[in-house]
Design brief:
Radius of gyration: 21 Å
Structural class: alpha/beta
CATH architecture of the largest domain: 3-Layer(aba) Sandwich
Order of helices and strands: EHHEEHHEHEHEHHEHHHHEHEEEEH
Helix content: 40-55%
Largest sheet: 6 strands, mixed
Number of helices: 14
Number of strands: 12
Shape: globular
CATH topology of the largest domain: Rossmann fold
Strand content: 15-25%
Oligomer: single chain
Number of domains: 2
């Protein structure tokens, strides 16, 4: 089966996905019967390139990673926008991998809407549209006989949403607790190892775990977006920003970390969604966990989520929560899931 992909966005995640398509081409064909071709790539600052027969991703990746534009990959570059290409191009799946946030989930949300309205499936790693508009977008997908997939929005390539929706089907989910932001977990780990908060933040920036303005991570906003997605995806409950109790890690100091150690506990930034009858409580806040807690041993930039069920008790999944190639894997996994 030939599958034609239109890519909106070609940053770290888009490039990671393209790299995996090249690496897995033979495997995708032999294991799943898929002949995947990227027929268009559109970006905000590099312009757009199109080839109905499939772009040479090796050339495109080489050009971009050498710091050049699309022109050096041998393709004519147009200034067509993503809405133009979604409307005019013949494709099967849109991968929406542009940059958005909770304050302004555009233009990604409109890209997703337009593709679904056209009856095309969408895979996204964008937290903003999914956190704020998932119910509407799911309804739009169903109405137009399309599929919306978003595994990469919560734990990057670690398959949390698929685990819950597919492999824990039949179990009632009672509560979810998770370390869903690797940057803050890295900072807290380094503070356990003796660094002061400001020094740990500076180190995280140097390593690329934090942006120059670390507010979204250290004040919990990134984790809030992921908690909102889980509330809808797992519990079917729409949760607004104002309904999530939020506190970041910026007030924690090394003395707090040391006190917890003496109590055989560790500080973690925990995203939590917990059922209380018909009410769902959602929060993101630092918590002191006992050393015996499944999440206590998760160190560095790793992420982990514990799912409490009626059938199996606690189920914990651990893995990388960031990275272009890792999130690109989530996109690839979602693509296989659509056509499997």
């Amino acid at each position: 089966m030939r599958v034609k992909i239109l890519m909106a966005g070609f940053g770290h995640v888009g490039q990671g996905f393209a790299e995996l398509l090249l690496q897995k081409r033979t495997f995708l064909s032999s294991a799943f019967g898929l002949d995947v071709r990227v027929v268009g790539i559109v970006t905000g600052h590099r312009g757009a390139i199109v080839d109905p027969n499939g772009l040479r991703l090796d050339r495109v990746l080489k050009s971009v990673r050498e710091g050049n534009g699309f022109e050096q990959s041998g393709y004519s570059v147009s200034q067509m926008s993503a809405p133009d290409l979604i409307k005019r191009l013949d494709f099967d799946v849109l991968t929406e991998l542009t940059i958005t946030d909770l304050k302004n989930p555009q233009p990604a949300t409109e890209h997703i809407r337009s593709a679904l309205q056209k009856g095309r499936s969408v895979i996204t790693a964008n937290k903003g549209p999914i956190a704020l508009h998932l119910k509407e977008l799911e309804a739009l997908a169903k109405e137009n006989d399309a599929v919306l997939k978003y595994e990469g929005t919560v734990l990057s390539g670690t398959p949390l949403i698929n685990l819950i929706q597919m492999h824990l089907a039949g179990a009632e989910i009672l509560e979810i607790q998770g370390i869903v932001n690797g940057s803050t977990n890295y900072i807290l780990t380094r503070m356990e190892e003796g660094l002061e908060y400001d020094d740990a933040v500076a180190e995280a920036k140097e390593l690329g775990y934090l942006e120059a303005d670390p507010t979204a991570d250290v004040e919990g906003w990134d984790a809030v977006a992921k908690a909102m997605i889980l509330a809808r995806a797992v519990f079917g409950t729409e949760v607004g920003l104002e309904q999530v109790e939020r506190k970041g890690i910026s007030t924690l100091r090394r003395a707090d970390i040391q006190t917890a150690k003496e109590e055989n506990k560790v500080w973690k930034l925990i995203a939590r969604a917990q059922k209380d009858g018909e009410i769902l409580h959602v929060s993101v806040r630092p918590e002191k966990l006992k050393d015996s807690h499944p999440l206590a041993a998760v160190k560095g930039a790793m992420n982990a989520v514990t799912v409490y069920t009626d059938c199996l008790g606690a189920v914990t999944i651990t893995g990388p929560g960031a990275g272009g190639r890792e999130t690109g894997f989530a996109v690839l996994n979602d693509l296989i899931s659509i056509f499997r």
